[in-house]
Amino acid sequence: MLISRPMAGRRRGAAVVTAVLTCSAVLTGPGLATAGGPPSPSAAAPRLAWSPCVRGSAFDCATARVPLDHRDPGGRTLELAVIKRKATGPGRRIGTLFFNPGGPGGPGTVQMPQNYPFFPREVRERFDIVSWDPRGIGSSTAVNCFGSAEEAGAWAGGKPAGFPVGARERAAWIASYKDLGRRCQQRDPRLLRHVSTADTARDLDLLRQAVGEPRLSYLGISYGTFLGATYANLFPGRVRAMVLDSNVDPQAWTNHGSPADPRLTTFLRMGTDRGAAATLDQFLTRCGATTARCAFSAGSPKATRDRFDELMRRLRAHPVGAWTYGRTVADVVNGLYNVAPGWTQLAGRLQALWRGRAPKPAPLPPAPPVPFPNPYLGDEQAAAVFCSDSPNPHTPGAYHALEEFSARRAGDVGRFWTWASEPCATWPAVAANPYRGPWNAPTAHPVLVVGTTYDPATPYAGARAMAGELAHARLLTHHGYGHTALSNPSSCVQAHESRYLISGTLPPPGTDCRQDTPPFSTPTPSGGMDTGGGAMAGRVR
């Protein structure tokens, strides 16, 4: 399972996986230098032959070829599936804005079209918006460790949903992911070592060149913030504008740059378990205070929390159909990502379970107008990035104790986030050319960091940490709920992002914004704001 929110076609109940880079490479002119060695040769920018993704689509698609190993640009190549939506404002185009939807493992060719309506109107008018499926993912050259869809389905059906409960399920879970790693190692071991975030950051720089931009304009959400920070430190002189929304703490992600076997998992180092617990508490508090709009309300915040705890105890002993305790907690975490209508829908599913009925799963977003709207996105794709990049404990038997540790500080959701990293315990590969920091290279222009105060995946502390690590960054605080300000909109955040992306104007230090639609309230229209680029529009280069 990924940090980023669900998308069309993604299988439910996978294990959470994410990524990190580890490398001592720094940019020196056009090549990459290693400590004590000469610059490596650079690959030529790929040629992009754009055409409509499908007949009548507003999106254009292309394929880019990039080196498997950026230190060997003449060797094996990979294909990247790329997508673009042209700027809608005639004669007002500034340039190209690259977008990464998170993950790792989020396919941009699917999630950029799905997220496109959430981009501020003026950003859509002034920029071509470009995204791509990162190497190893989706419709790009992908990590696929099964010979058929049936084989992949049989593997997925053999492990517990959400996370394991009890000794028997723990053994089955560990055996399943050990088997997955073995399968992947047998199919394409070289690819597994070249899907790191640093590899993808170097791909991004080639895509920047391919569209003719002298510097990068970028919006990254969730794991995409770590990709952005990596790019900013590999290519600091090439940053035009960079918005990082819902941030990963790069020091926690990389275990402070140490490859040693860590004591805690990635998500426990990040505090994701505690952030999810705080967000769940807000969900239950607000649900209990508004019986008219929250189906799971027990009439007061305390009574609603008690009802939730009782439901979890019941499900541990007696699942409701396929809805086990592990599957339900995983659904709760995912359901907290999007406030409207996600929290209302989550409350309805919990109430159905309370009444002993199996609820329908949360609806998936509509498929976008692209050639492959439902690409294969098996667990191994996210794992290949996350596990090769971010250090996690190597002993599978350690995770039960870590689960109990997290449960003491974060309750049920701590169990979910602990087991999210366990696939890395037996993953067979590490990144060949990773990046582990430092994170303070002076960029050509400052970075805008956006953090949401109640985020179930990337806690607000991660935004503070990111803003403190980067050499030139400004923190914008989004007082709200859910994962990413992009999909839980604030007109205030959108206005500041638009001004920054168009003219380079940062919000004043200490700026706070509020979410447009609070939980369990009547939705109000939100969207892009005319931020008036004025005389500065287009001048940032």
Describe this structure in words.
- The protein is α/β, with parallel strands linked by helices and 541 residues long.
- Helices cover 36% and strands 13% of the residues.
- The chain is globular.
Strand order of the largest sheet: 3-4-5-7-6-8-9-10-11-12
What's the order of the H and E elements? EEEEEEHHEHHHHEHEHHHHHHHHHEHEHE
Write down how many β-strands occur, each being a DSSP E stretch of 2 or more residues. 12
Strand count, sense and closure of the main sheet? 10 strands, mixed
The number of helical elements comes to: 18
Q: What low-confidence regions span 5 or more consecutive residues with pLDDT below 50?
A: 5-39, 525-541
Look at the helices and sheets and give the structural class.
alpha/beta
**Percent helix among the residues?**
25-40%
Record the SSE blueprint:
Layout: E1 26-28, E2 31-33, E3 51-52, E4 59-67, E5 77-85, E6 95-100, H1 108-115, H2 121-126, E7 127-132, H3 149-157, H4 167-187, H5 189-192, H6 197-210, E8 216-221, H7 223-234, E9 239-245, H8 250-253, H9 266-270, H10 272-288, H11 301-317, H12 325-335, H13 342-354, H14 379-389, H15 399-410, H16 412-419, E10 447-454, H17 460-469, E11 473-481, H18 491-503, E12 512-514
Helix pairs in contact: 6-7, 10-11, 10-16, 11-12, 12-13, 15-16
Protein traits:
541 residues; alpha/beta; 10-stranded mixed β-sheet; two-stranded antiparallel sheet; 18 helices; 36% helix; disordered C terminus
Short description:
The chain is of the alpha/beta class.
